[in-house]
What does this fold into?
Amino acid sequence: MKEAIVLFAHGSRDPAWAAPLRTLQALVAARRPGTRVELAFLEQMRPTLDEAIDAAAAARAQRVLVVPLFLAPGGHAARDLPALIATARARHPALAIRATSSIGEEAGVLAALADWIARAAA
It folds into this structure.
């Protein structure tokens, strides 16, 4: 395995909160056979981002793509995520770790949400 994808979400005290994210994890994994797809959380749930990246490194991934599942970029994406990635890079200097923008910054995601809202309102 050369690549791992870590879907990074906020987390919640309610385990059911993560159900749609686990569905997303399965959908991504189905589209990327041979790629490890993890779901990680900032707080309240496990695995943490550190744990997910450590697991990818232990599985001999060479690259990790972190995808922040935040609708709007804010403090978690702007401050917390870069700090967590810097810490992970220090632990795993041979591992190439990069992050995408938050999903809410992507035009296709916003268009899909707008379509869904328009259908719901019809």
The first helix runs from residue 19 to 31. The chain has one domain: 3-121. The radius of gyration is 15 Å.
